[in-house]
TrEMBL record:
Transmembrane segments: none
Entry's EC annotation: 2.1.1.-
Domain of life from the UniProt record: Bacteria
One Pfam family named in its UniProt record: MTS
GO molecular function, one term: S-adenosylmethionine-dependent methyltransferase activity
The protein's name in its UniProt record: S-adenosylmethionine-dependent methyltransferase
Class of this enzyme: transferase
Lineage, broadest ranks: Bacteria, Bacillati, Bacillota, Clostridia, Eubacteriales
């Protein structure tokens, strides 16, 4: 049975895959690792759509549930002026996000904790997430609800999900908590939802 990646201390054997990805003339090299989303030789389709869609609303970004770092590191590469923080509950994810940052000479802050505990009362202009859907509705709902307390006024929560695999539910929860939500981009069954903090 595969180990769940939404865990603090993965116990699965460490296996690595090295690959490169290019977007808008930026090529990054990543090492993905077993026990961390998404163990593959390419960035998963949902994360890639979020990277392609994201446009910053300010100077600070939090990549919530960063995995090995694909979203946050590409955002830093594309917008070097941004201050980017990556966080994950999974200690292996945090270690590999840091390794991937160093591998690509990108200065970001990488911290470990459950949801927002690792960032204290810090606020960000943007929070981006390909949320841990398999961790369950309670975890993703908490991620959305607590985003309100961690965004600057006018800041945005960007969430990517498969619309028919929980995305429509999370879109409604974003509307309930922020009073607004929009489908910024869609590709196949994947949607990028965005809510602004008024």
């Amino acid at each position: 049975m595969n180990e769940h990646y939404y865990t603090e201390k993965p116990t699965s054997e460490i296996k690595e895959k090295v690959f490169t990805e290019t977007y808008r003339n930026k090529t990054l090299e990543f090492v993905s690792v077993s026990g961390v989303f998404a163990f593959d030789t390419r960035i998963d389709k949902a994360s890639r759509l979020l990277i392609e869609t994201f446009r910053p609303t300010g100077r600070t970004v939090l990549d919530m549930g960063c995995g090995y770092g694909a979203i946050g590191l590409f955002i830093k590469a594309l917008y070097p002026q941004l201050i980017v923080t990556l966080t994950d509950i999974n200690e292996r994810a945090v270690a590999y996000a840091q390794k991937n940052a160093e591998r690509n000479n990108l200065w970001v802050k990488v911290v470990r904790g459950n949801l927002y505990e690792s960032v204290g009362d810090s606020r960000f202009d943007d929070i981006v997430t390909n949320p841990p859907i398999t961790a369950g509705k309670k975890v993703v709902t908490q991620l959305i609800q607590e985003a309100v307390e961690h965004l600057e006024p006018g800041g945005a929560l960007w969430l990517v999900a498969y619309h028919n695999k929980g995305g429509s539910t999370y879109k409604r929860i974003m509307e309930e908590n922020f009073g607004n939500v929009e489908d910024v981009e869609k590709q196949g069954g994947i949607r990028v939802y965005r809510s602004y903090l008024k």
